[in-house]
Queue: 4 jobs
Job 1
Amino acid sequence: MTYNKNVKKYIKQCKYLFASYGKSEKEYIRKLIDNIDDGSHDMTYDEVVERLGTPKEVIISYYEQEDMDRLIEKAKVRRLLKNFLSVALVVLLVFLCYKAYIYQKTFEEVRDSKDGYFEETIEVKEDYEIK
């Protein structure tokens, strides 16, 4: 289905206001779209708001009718995932800093050996005969 920019704007604002956007939220948005679609695709934004309410009111009504235990469980999982990713990022950062330190020390050892100069030795073999 194609909608005008006002309906798309309304749906986008509703999606933005969800704390998380999962399967049940997508289903709710589909039902919301079905309520908007009455064959007249020339609705203004104010007409959509008048018909369904502001995006904030729509999201509040969604959370009022949802099971509170399920919402709390989703929040816990999201917080746990966020904490895990934060710890993983810190561990990765520490590891990369350690590797950079090791590479820097190795570079300094190589640079400081032989006073920072490389010696090139050319050997000439006298046994070579030209025919």
Job 2
Amino acid sequence: MMELLSGIIRKIIIGDIKDGITYVVGQPIMRGKAKITAIIQDDLYFYKYNMLKFNVFIQMEGEETSEMWKSFFKITGVEYNLNYEEEYEVK
């Protein structure tokens, strides 16, 4: 049975755990012109379709707000932020 996960997501892995693609909050992308600001589980999508979906948000250099960059439906791993003093938000 599929269920919603809870917690602040720090990293997701797509594909093989060892050789797959990894997305990490704070990671620079697009040759340093943007960075990943948040990885969020799409709860509304889950309630409507009963499928997990993870959205990756980025902030372009010089911009004040983040925008959704990619969505993933099949992931291999999720790593949660266990540093409870650290927090981030999508602007």
Job 3
Amino acid sequence: MARKAVKKAAKKAPAKKTSARKAPARKAAKKAAPAPSKPVKVTTPAGKTITASALLLAIADHNGVKKTEAKAFIEGYFDVVRAHVLKGVKVKIGDLGMILIRARKARMGRNPQTGEPVKIKASKKLAFRQSAVMKAAVMGR
């Protein structure tokens, strides 16, 4: 009789599950609107090249930091990007584009003066691929 009571109690008690429980549902967090960035002041005329020191000065002015702090940050950023690119990693830079190394296969070329075939060795080239956002901005869309 004791066995029947134990069996009934075992049937009534729910078995414990050892599987992981689901996390409780989270409330959707409101996304904060990005802080409006102040417009960048461009002093170099179109078609001209901006020097590194002028670029650093513009970055320092835009972010409200000293030129030495901006220089340390930018040089560190370039070092990290350079290290990743040299390892063969594609580096995406925001809405600007992507920096990568492209492998070029060996191929046959032709000497334009003599017309004789010439072997061109395989090589690696540094490449920049613009993003769709940047392309649209350049195209004026």
Job 4
Amino acid sequence: MVSASLIGFLHRIDQNATLFLNSFSTPATDQLWMLMSDKTVWIPAYAICAYFLFRRLGWKKALVVLVSVGIAFGLCDQFSTIVKHSVDRLRPSYSARMLLGGLNVLEGRGGFYGFFSAHAANAFALVMCLIIGFRNDRTHTYNGFYKFALTWAALVAVSRIFVGKHYLGDVIVGTIVGLTIGYFVGMLARYVIQTRIDKVPVTGLTMIFDERKFPITLTKSSPSGSRGSL
């Protein structure tokens, strides 16, 4: 068991780090952080991603990817709710020390408990599912999209500090949870696509090399049982 004194020590560090980051708020950047935190603003962007999934992957694969996004969202939300009510860590917007320390709060204070950030978890889970999902299209590269999507998720996560709703620790843990859930759910969707739709040998996630320069050719097993060259 982690001692109460250690938990208190880590909590104070988290409070100080959050106040330090939050202190960089300005009237100009406040609008940006509120925009990044507003889920409804990004609905058109979600629709555009869904459109390209259907256009590039076909309706069957796109549907599998979208289902994986929904599952990842649900898992992140439910897990976040369970942890919040288990840990019972008040949001910074309910902390007298944070408010007296100059915390800039841009939104309503929300529910009492904030560990961990569901915004951060959902954003990174969405991005992971989409990155893995678009990898099922072997005719295009999406490096620009990957960089943009990860940057967007990072901004959404960080915005929760600047609007005064979460501590830095809430955001870090939420990011880790989102990446983890998004990866495993996304890979499960990839497995379904490869085995049920494409009916090809199951492969892992390759994101480093440029397939146009290093093409992959999968061949059937030889009579001796050895695999063909890649």
